[in-house]
Specification:
There is one protein chain. This protein is mainly α. It contains nine helices and four strands, in the order αβααβαβααααβα. The strands form two sheets. A two-stranded parallel ribbon has the order 1-2. Strands 3-4 form a two-stranded parallel ribbon. The longest helix has 23 residues. It starts with 13 loop residues before the first helix and ends with a helix.
Length: 190
């Protein structure tokens, strides 16, 4: 009874292996379904996994099973432990358009030319930083240590200002974007 990580290409039987293992754990070892976590990348794959498991087990078992995407698993944890994660229960989730709109508003407030740098580019960079576990304050420190490449430093400084304001506004408005869902969960679990 140990953790398993399965990495393989498309069509190689990953879902079949996971389904077989989960069904075996529940039926043979009597592991409670609520104690099993199966995480995948797409909603389609998670749904398929639950359906396949449901063919072998009682409905109550599959209902309690945690078989979801990374984002939905993390969102479920954040909803259950919002206060401990520094959020207020009932927080909002920003989709990509909402994130880009907020970044655009911030850039305009900071007089950063949105024709020169598209807000979607900064929104994407903010998400990338979060996916690497880098908060705005950490990024600000890194920007201060950049070599004096004038063009590079100017864009990094602008991104730093936007990211700092973005993080502050999201906290004030009790909202998270998709990358924040993952980062907050990692921070919560730590």
């Amino acid at each position: 009874l140990c953790n398993a990580l399965i990495i393989a290409g498309a069509g190689t039987g990953k879902t079949r292996v996971l389904v077989s293992r989960i069904v075996y754990l529940i039926s043979h070892y009597k592991v409670k379904a609520r104690n099993i976590l199966a995480v995948t990348f797409t909603n389609k794959a998670a749904k398929e996994m639950r359906e396949r498991i449901g063919m072998y087990l009682y409905a109550n078992d599959t209902h309690q099973l945690w078989a979801n995407t990374f984002h939905s698993t993390c969102l479920r944890l954040l909803r259950a432990y919002a206060t401990q994660a520094g959020l207020t229960p009932g927080f909002l989730v920003l989709d990509t358009d909402g994130q880009t709109s907020l970044v655009k508003r911030i850039m305009q407030d900071l007089d950063i030319d949105i024709k020169e740098i598209k807000p979607s580019i900064f929104a994407s960079r903010i998400s990338s930083l979060k996916e690497k576990g880098i908060r705005a304050a950490d990024f600000n420190k890194r920007v201060n240590h950049l070599k004096r490449d004038k063009n590079r430093i100017e864009i990094a400084e602008q991104l730093s200002l936007v990211y700092t304001a973005y993080e502050r506004i999201c906290n004030q408005e009790n909202s998270v974007d998709f990358a924040e869902i993952l980062l907050r969960t990692v921070e919560l679990l730590k």
